[in-house]
Amino acid sequence: MMNERVSVITTVLNEAKSIESLLQVLLAQSHKPEEIIIVDGGSSDGTVEIVKKYSNINDDINLIVKEGVNIAEGRNIAIQNAKYPLVAVIDAGCRPDKRWLEELIKPFERNNPLDAVAGLVKVESHNLFEFFSGLLTLPGCLEEISENNFPMYGRSAAFKKDVWEKAGGYPEWLYTAEDSLFEEKLRKMGANIKLAKQSIVHWRPRKTLWKMAKMFYLYGRGAGRIGKSLSGAYYHLRNYLLGVVLLMISFFYPLTLILFAAGLAYIYKGFYRPIIRRVKRAHPGWKTEFYVPLIVFIRTLSYSIGLLVGNYEYKHVSGFKENLDAYMRE
Predict the structure, then answer these.
(1) At a CB cut-off of 8 Å and minimum separation 6, what does 190 contact?
(2) 126: domain range?
(3) Is 71 exposed, middle or buried (CB count within 10 Å of its CB: 0-12, 13-18, 19+)?
(4) Are 233 and 167 in a shared domain?
């Protein structure tokens, strides 16, 4: 029997298509959460009404509506209102296995000094584009996640409420990368964090190339806002810009196409080809040759642009650098 009492929290914004399914799965967990706290950021699609329907028949479901809050603010509000000393976080739109929560909090029973636990996120794809996008996005899809080096996503994590307080909560001045910085803060504090490989949630990648590009742009922008290195962005953008310039010049000097083709072959062999080989271990076939370069190109381009924009804000927009320094210093 599990002795840990846990509050499960999530934030939502226009999740009418997925929130009912999430609530049903959470209520059917092998270890049923003692409470479920949902913070709505101002949905206009019926999400609030669906949650109210469930909360009216289940006192363990607590809905808090705070229009305009971002994910970090919503999580902090939910945790502030949590009754129990152990908090589990999951993202709306994810589908947890039936034993997700039981496996996520199990390490706390075996290890009293434990501060936080990270669960595994697996791809739930509905077509080939989503399949390849997921493989190239989530750690652990192409290689085994190390027990000593693993991410702690807001999609699936649990931690003690007092550790969250010591860390200063999630950084509310960030729109994205808030969970990455929160994890970085915990590790800087010397928090004892373990990986629960049997705790699994399924995440569906973005459905279109445009939505995927927007997602990675926001990821990059968030990383830039916390001062992450620009070396990778400079490398990719320099190569892409050089390719565009050579292609434009080729309209006037056709021989320039030789340089363009040579550069393309060099980048393909050195950067894209090794990724294709790794993906082919999971999905052999010619379609890998099409999807992987397309997805990797859009991913690196959008992430690099976002990183540059975020880094500019970090350096020149008041608040980001100051907030980062204060957050990591506290």
Answers:
(1) none
(2) 6-203
(3) buried
(4) no
Same domain, 219 and 152: no
Residue 1 lies in a domain: no
Question: Mean pLDDT, to the nearest integer, of 129-158?
Answer: 85
User: How many domains does the structure of the chain reveal?
Assistant: 2
The two beta strands, 95-96 and 86-90, are unpaired
Instruction: Write down the pTM of the prediction.
Output: 0.90
Cα 61 to Cα 17, 40, 64, 84, 155: the distances in Å are 19, 13, 10, 14, 19
Q: 185-203, pLDDT tens digit by residue?
A: 999 999 999 999 999 999 9
Token pair listed for 292: 């992987």
Judge if 155 and 239 occupy the same domain.
no
Query: Could you read off the pLDDT of 148-160 as tens digits, one per residue?
Result: 778 898 899 999 9
Q: How confident is the model at residue 1 (pLDDT cuts 50, 70, 90)?
A: very low
Which of 156, 187, 203 corresponds to the end of one domain? Answer: 203
In this predicted model, what pLDDT tens digit does every residue of 17-34 receive, in sequence order?
999 999 999 999 999 999
| Closest C-alpha to 167, from 178, 177, 155 | 178
Angle at 71 between CA 237 and CA 195, to 5 degrees: 80
Dihedral of CA 264/270/272/276: which sign? Answer: positive
Chain centre distance of CA 282 = 22
Residues 166 and 235 in one domain: no
Query: Does 178 share its domain with 224?
Result: no
Last residue of a domain, one of 203, 225, 259: 203
Return d(Cα 324, Cα 321) in angstroms, integer: 5
